[in-house]
């Protein structure tokens, strides 16, 4: 895994992204030369004339592929699946480019050239993806890992390495027990510690040891052997860091407070605050301008359906525990909480109106919160704000829950794009683990990634409730 602005990115994704940048850039020049066939006086003139259109084409196509989830590799892709995913992404990119040509005519480089460029780049990306995916299956980017521990935590880490990582770039050598107790991993995968941990790791060509021991008290952890492994060039990682790196979660059930205190992250500097506020204002004003027609139509539909209020305000908990009134399009009946007690929203909630169901699926009901962002009560990206009634309950039941209130809440966030909609304490725990990851590793780079993933959620209708 590579680390960019505290966020971990898969090696396969990084290689794929860089290769596709080169393919998209080069396809513009190849298409131009094939179409014009020497019509320009020289390559230097060609590079100068088509530099801006080439960059615009590349950025647009990368954005379109990202928005449709082509850089979230959660299952094996063959030639057919890759082609089926690539076609709508290029269609979206073509639509954005067409609009861009009207707004900025300097970007236009002719229909004939554009057709050739799309054909060349599409073919190149399709072949590159098939080649890279096949290479990853042959283990060219594979890492050999060893788990220290055989309990529940070791089992969960092993399952994550086997099933939740794109293209299985981990080979599990086995599990080494550290103390007597229940063994939760397959007995065939347990390696008897008849020799030192260093000798064992070198023998099996292990590149990383994952310390997945729940209880480290009583001298169970072989610290000297782990240090010896590290001095021999073998990476040593604890379970909390492994989950953070591979699942973008900070697990609260196996988390030591000292890990949060002495670990990296939690950037609350003036520069980070300034960049985030600038990002919030630019994105909010841009999306507000683009979405004005959709908001006007939504407001009219809500009013015509039951002649009730268009908007509703609700108290939410924000930064440092301060409350504020969040603004949303009304998607439920006026008597949604006639019992007088706050209720969790549910999937396919019967209290939702017909229009409400549509705007929830498309996330249009969240758009008025842009006003909260402009007022400084929210950020565009951050943990979703919760109601005081539920915050009081969750603080008592979930450790570290209040950490999410150390930054401003957001319209969208890591939990919203990574976890399906849920409404229970168990779901709140899962969402908190993503929120803690964001609070610890938040950066402008991560905000942009979440914003792109949010567009994917909107376009594909994921997570509707």
Question: Tags for this entry?
Answer:
Rossmann fold; 53% helix; two-stranded antiparallel sheet; 465 residues; four-stranded parallel sheet; alpha/beta
Order of helices and strands: EEHHHHEHEHEHEHHHEEHHEHEHHH
Q: Which structural class best describes the helix and strand composition?
A: alpha/beta
Count of domains: 3
| Uncertain residue segments | 40-45
The count of β-strands is: 10
Q: Summarize the biggest pleated sheet.
A: 4 strands, parallel
* Average predicted local confidence, pLDDT: 86
Q: Name the helicity range.
A: 40-55%
User: How is the largest sheet built, in terms of strand order?
Assistant: 4-3-5-6
Radius of gyration: 25 Å
Q: Any chance you could write out the topology, listing elements then pairs?
A:
Layout: E1 2-4, E2 7-9, H1 11-36, H2 43-67, H3 79-103, H4 111-137, E3 143-148, H5 152-163, E4 170-176, H6 197-203, E5 208-211, H7 223-231, E6 235-238, H8 239-247, H9 257-262, H10 270-306, E7 311-317, E8 323-329, H11 354-361, H12 370-374, E9 379-381, H13 388-397, E10 410-412, H14 414-418, H15 425-441, H16 444-460
Parallel strand pairs: 3-4, 3-5, 5-6, 9-10
Antiparallel strand pairs: 1-2, 7-8
Helix pairs in contact: 1-2, 1-4, 2-3, 3-4, 5-8, 10-11
Keywords: Membrane, Transferase, Transmembrane, Transmembrane helix
Membrane topology: Multi-pass membrane protein
Pfam families: Bac_transf
